[in-house]
Amino acid sequence: MENLALIDSFSEFKDDKLIDRVTLMAILEDVFRNALKKKYGSDDNFDIIINPDKGDMEIWRNRVVVADGEVEDPNQEISLSEARRIEPDFEVGEDVSEEVKLIQLGRRAILALRQNLISKIHEHDNTNLYKQFKDLTGDIYTAEVHHVRPKAVILVDDEGNEIVLPKEKQIPSDFFRKGDNVRGIIESVELKGNKPMIIMSRTSELFLEKLFEQEIPEVFDGLITVKKVVRIPGEKAKVAVDSYDDRIDPVGACVGMKGSRIHGIVRELGNENIDVINYTTNTQLYISRALSPAKVSSIKIDETNHRAEVFLKLEEVSKAIGRGGHNIKLAGLLTGYELDVIREGTAAEDEDVELTEFSDEIEAWIIAEFAKIGLDTARSVLKQDVADLVRRTDLEEETILDVMRILKEEFED
Questions:
Q1: For residues 117 and 6, is the Cβ–Cβ distance under 8 A?
Q2: CB 231 within 8 A of CB 330
Q3: Could you tell me if 392 and 373 are in contact, meaning their C-beta atoms sit under 8 angstroms apart?
Q4: Of 190, 196, 187, which Cα lies nearest the Cα of 140?
Q5: How far apart are CA 358 and CA 305, in angstroms?
Q6: Which among 3, 213, 265, 398 has the fewest CB atoms less than 10 Å away?
Q7: What is the percentage of the chain residues whose pLDDT exceeds 70?
Q8: 74: confidence class by pLDDT, cuts 50, 70, 90
Q9: CA 13 → CA 2, 23, 328, distances in Å?
Q10: What mean pLDDT do residues 244-265 have?
Q11: How far apart are CA 269 and CA 353, in angstroms?
Q12: Contacts of 99 (CB under 8 A, 6+ apart)
């Protein structure tokens, strides 16, 4: 058959799930019309009938019958004598439809037509793929490791689409082997030539936010809102959450009983330490919460320059800064303020000792009496008024004075 090469082309693409029958027919007609334009100069007077399921197609050229010797455009007009060779009863002015065989286009044109068809189909697939993943940008996606390269991991999804996970988009502790399933977000889709390059990320803040949506029902349902996420991938992250329903504890709901809900997220991120914080519009309180687990003494805010001086006791400074400075860096990113840590007093003034350390000199029941009213360190006792301590405890004034003398001697030493 003349159209054998095209039948092969149809069978190659007709079952492609990215292209429907109507679209395939439109592409085929476009390819044929381009071939006809090159051969005859115009395709306006051609009818193309295609059956892509079988690979059958017909091309009909429509011309007007003119008197012999009066043909000006052979593509649009046919002489009376030539028309009567098709059917003997044709007259001048009538329309003639004549089937054009593919072989009339020439072997070279047929080969070019098939190549053009393949090119158009691939172009359509790439356009569809680009649109498909453009709509998935920002969503969590799972794909399988196909190849591990020094600068990127190449993934393949269930439909055979290639996804790139660059080295800089991987969590430092990530280790992948061929066949592993990998989760990340579709961060971007870029066109490289005509082919889309799909980029996945596991380091994006959005990935952590989407994991909260996926793993915590209240976030998915909109009962809890993730206000902001900041992270140092694989090390530490801070997530500010809020709820418009006063009956819901957003932090408790996100963390779960004994960390049960957040554990899966932490594991997915290579044991990244995640602090979940109650969002508030109170800037001082927000900064204080953001610096958790450190306990802040006071905060002085400079709204104009978006800076804040955070006053901390000496023993809280290291907690506020965190390992490698991660805690204070993330707190600044979360709140939008540049945070300056101010140590309260000198080291000598801030040094404190637990009362239990004096058990050799102070009886246990006396230490217990102080503990009943919330005094469990030496400095906390020394700051109190003696008469007030007599009133608040079952201790005699003499006993209290004796305890204070022992405590003062500790600091004088």
A1: yes
A2: yes
A3: yes
A4: 187
A5: 48
A6: 398
A7: 88
A8: confident
A9: 19, 11, 57
A10: 90
A11: 39
A12: 58, 59, 60, 61
> 259-297: per-residue pLDDT in tens?
889 999 999 999 999 999 999 999 999 999 999 999 999
Taking each helix axis from N to C terminus, what angle separates 364-372 and 397-412, rounded to the nearest 10 degrees?
A: 100
Return d(Cα 141, Cα 183) in angstroms, integer.
6
The first and second tokens of residue 157, run together, are 């999804």
Cα 183 from Cα 267, distance rounded (Å): 12
SS (H, E, C) the chain: CCCHHHHHHHHHHCCCCCCCHHHHHHHHHHHHHHHHHHHHCCCCCEEEEEECCCCEEEEEEEEEEECCCCCCCCCCEEEHHHHHHHCCCCCCCCEEEEECCHHHHCHHHHHHHHHHHHHHHHHHHHHHHHHHHHHCCCCEEEEEEEEECCCEEEEECCCCCEEEEEHHHCCCCCCCCCCCEEEEEEEEEEEECCEEEEEEECCCHHHHHHHHHHHCHHHHCCCEEEEEEEEECCCEEEEEEEECCCCCCHHHHHHCHHHHHHHHHHHHCCCCEEEEEECCCCHHHHHHHHCCCCCCCEEEEECCCCEEEEEECHHHHHHHHCHHHHHHHHHHHHHCCEEEEEECCCHHHHCCCEHHHHCCCCCHHHHHHHHHCCCCEHHHHHCCCHHHHHHHCCCCHHHHHHHHHHHHHHHHC
Q: Cα separations (Å) of 25 from 60, 120, 316?
A: 16, 12, 72
* Cα 29 from Cα 117, distance rounded (Å): 10
**Selection from 191, 137, 125 nearest residue 161 by Cα:** 125
Other C-beta atoms closer than 10 Å to the C-beta of 386 total 11
Is-above-0.70 flag for pTM? no
